[in-house]
């Protein structure tokens, strides 16, 4: 049960930690100064949301997200939010591809080399169906989390930062709501595809609580580090590189590799949500469906990484507020119905 729960926990984290989050751009967009309480609230909201989605998915034994979405928002709004999820997964996966291009640019490669470098393995991982993504997450995400925490904690120690300073200044707490809402739709899409693979409620508790606490802790430490380099962030497409500028080149190379892997796992989760949604209507193996999806996305990556995040992420966060409220109220409304 613990092993299975950890597997789903890494799937959740892999969906969450992508180009926007791992680079620091998404965190800085929503949090920044006076955000300790906001990150705590995000941890609670995120944990509850994951538990509700997984519980519904387990109960429905779903193979794609539509039955889960219908339970959350009701039959009347399912069509609207189904369209939103499709659009969300498509555009945010485009953001992941653009993030790969931006990462390779940091090493003086062509932007399009970075796009091709992620597109090819993104198709190949689906040769092994869903098992390919699950196996990949279990191997690389502990490495990613460990590497990211190592850099952030080392930076905090070297700068002699006080992690719990300014606790009395928490005026940015409302940011927790749109930030959590932003990440709800991909979770519904991905976790709705694994309902028939969940075996117990214990797995659900391990996955939801584990992912919430881990992401909340990383977010708090990461945000605290970004506050110290607030002036430098404007000069960098990827804020994490502003933290790394004083480190040896080998560290820069290692973290850049992990950042690219984070981008890849989230892109894979986005493609998974899309192709499982249409799998019943389209014939052919998953890798072929993934190939067609990625080919459609590539031309849109020319818009640019930070531009996409700046305009699309806050918009999606606002649109998803209703879904988040349904998820947070679900345990109470479901008990009343029972």
How many discrete structural domains?
A: 1
This entry's quaternary arrangement is: single chain
The counted number of beta strands is 0
Structural class: mainly alpha
CATH homologous superfamily heading: Hydantoin permease
CATH level-two architecture: Orthogonal Bundle
Through-space gap between termini: 28 Å
Query: CATH topology, what is it called?
Result: Hydantoin permease
SSE order, as H and E?
A: HHHHHHHHHHHHHHHHH
Low-confidence stretches: none
CATH class division = Mainly Alpha
Rg result? 19 Å
Mass-distribution shape: globular
Classify the beta-strand content into a percent band.
Answer: under 5%
Helix count?
Answer: 17
Share of residues in helices: over 70%
Instruction: Indicate the mean pLDDT.
Output: 82
Largest sheet, if any? none
Keywords: Membrane, Transmembrane, Transmembrane helix
Transmembrane segments: 38-58, 79-103, 109-127, 134-155, 175-195, 204-222, 251-274, 286-305, 311-332
Protein name: Membrane protein YkvI
InterPro entries: YkvI-like (IPR038728)
